[in-house]
Structure formats: C-alpha cells, structure tokens
Sequence to fold (126 residues):
Amino acid sequence: MPLPLVTLRRAQLEQLGAAMMDEFQVRLERHVRMVFPRRTGLLGDAGVRALIAKGVRRSQELRLTSERGMTRFTDLLFAFGEDFESRGGLAWMSSILQDVSTSEDARLYLIWTQLPERCPTSLEDF
Fold:
C-alpha cells in the first residue's frame, strides 16, 4: 500500500517534532515488514528500527524529503544492504542519489527504472 505523498523540509520536520517522525517511522516499519519479511525477520525488531532510522537520516542528507522519497530510499537499504551506496555493482545508484540538482522524484525514477535490468535480485531473494 503506497504511502501518501507529503513533502517535509528540515525546518518543517523540526517544527512538527518527534511525534510526527515517530508516526512516519511506525508506518515505514509496517511497510518494510510487509515488503521484506525475510530480511526483517533476520534483523529482529531492534535491527529493523535501526535500519529505518538510518534510512530516514541518510535520505534527508540526500535531500529526499518527501515520505515517498524516504520510503523508497529505505526500501533500497532493506533490499540491497546498508552499504549499497559504496558496493561495487550498486555504486551507480549513489551518483544518481547524490545529484541534488535533479528532483528527488526524478532521481528515484531513474533508479527504479534501471533496477530490473541492473539488479535482477536483492538480498530478500537470498
């Protein structure tokens, strides 16, 4: 079930406070548990929450500020591992993600359209 599109900028996140972010992370946790049941089972509750927190933090650093953008980036972490940005065959995604002159939707679209050809399997398949 896709999450609704909401753009959250750093100043807005600070104003909305921790409660809003906590609620988003609860929804994100439900999402990753549904999409990546094997991976989340291996990580356990604390590991899942830690990887979600890392995904949200890193997505904000990359200026992926919408809930959709943060969710998609976190999906990449769960699918390919938390080091996917620096791993040989997956590093192509890093250059796209770091190009902040391109909108977050365009960056994520570029990655998602290339995934089937460039990455036919994920860690969820192992």
